[in-house]
Amino acid sequence: MMMFALVALIPLGFLPSPTAACNCKLEAAELTIKIALYDRKCLQKGFKSSIGCVSEEGKLSRRQQRKCLKIEDQLEDCNHTCPVDGGWTEYTEWTECSASCGGGIQSRTRSCDNPPPAFGGAPCAGDAECSASCGGGIQSRTRSCDNPPPAFGGAPCAGDAIDTQQCNTDPCPVDGGW
User: Fold this and answer.
1) What is the pTM assigned to this prediction?
2) Who's near 127: CB < 8 A, 6+ residues apart?
3) 101-110: per-residue pLDDT in tens?
4) How far lies 156's CA from each of 65, 92, 113, 117, 159, in Å?
């Protein structure tokens, strides 16, 4: 009897649910193959997912759409979830300045929960831009206590959620005048 090993490259985050539903009719290896097929033949070609998966631009024929719907139904029966990348909320209003003269610090925050990253999705990335192009500004970055979040009586994260620093501290150019 000859045996073959099947190796499938699965996109990051496209992992079968460890607790598949009772009505899942696919073995683990079959599920892994279906997920890779769904990504390659459907999502990367423009199929509009109804289970929250992000798709590329494109257009599928009706026949291809029917095939993708069939695969999607099988994945849904197996509790397959697609990765959800995190998104930033809008910034809060600036805080009061820490000094009334001579320079101070203001900060504002945003959270990575619009939506929060889930099911292997990417966390939010990026720092805030400097608040001034010259003459001294403030740049801040935030982090969220969600990797993992405290649960079941666990302690909250230690440290500050907001990190600020001065930036663009060189004096602003002053044009000469007569």
Assistant:
1) 0.44
2) 139, 140, 141
3) 877 778 778 8
4) 46, 22, 17, 19, 9
